[in-house]
Write a structure and sequence with these properties.
By secondary structure, the chain is α+β, with helices and mostly antiparallel strands. The chain has two domains: about 1-55, no CATH class; about 65-109, no CATH class. The protein contains three helices and three strands. The chain has a three-stranded antiparallel sheet, with no helix packed on it. Strand 1 and strand 2 form a beta hairpin. The relative contact order is 0.14.
Length: about 110
């Protein structure tokens, strides 16, 4: 992420000239007070929204655990932690997990 800025619909600046890089194989956490822009920033990393200016790029796997994981939150399917883990897994693991997950969910487990 380089020189990213984002303005809220009401015109307030939420993010201004934000830059960071997480090196390959590293894990990062984003911590801050409510309303600081954490969720917005991660939605940009996930590609859900575009910044007003700047660049967002990911060259490796990006896993974002959605804020309402484990709840329906208006979705047809309730997202689970296993869904996040499968989304960042190699294709052969995703395929095995999807097959096993559909069997497990159909029998109530």
């Amino acid at each position: 992420m380089a020189h990213v800025s984002h303005v809220l619909p009401d015109g307030r600046t939420l993010l201004d000239d934000v830059s960071f890089r997480v090196g390959e194989g590293l894990t990062a956490a984003l911590v801050g007070p409510n309303g600081a822009g954490k969720t917005t920033l991660l939605r940009m990393v996930a590609g859900d929204i575009q910044p007003k200016s700047g660049t967002v790029a990911a060259s490796g796997g990006v896993g974002v655990m959605r804020q309402f994981i484990g709840t329906n939150a208006g979705h047809d399917v309730t997202p689970e932690v296993r869904d996040l883990l499968l989304s960042v897994s190699p294709p052969w693991v995703r395929e095995a997990g999807t097959t096993a997950g559909s069997r497990g969910r159909s029998n109530g487990s």
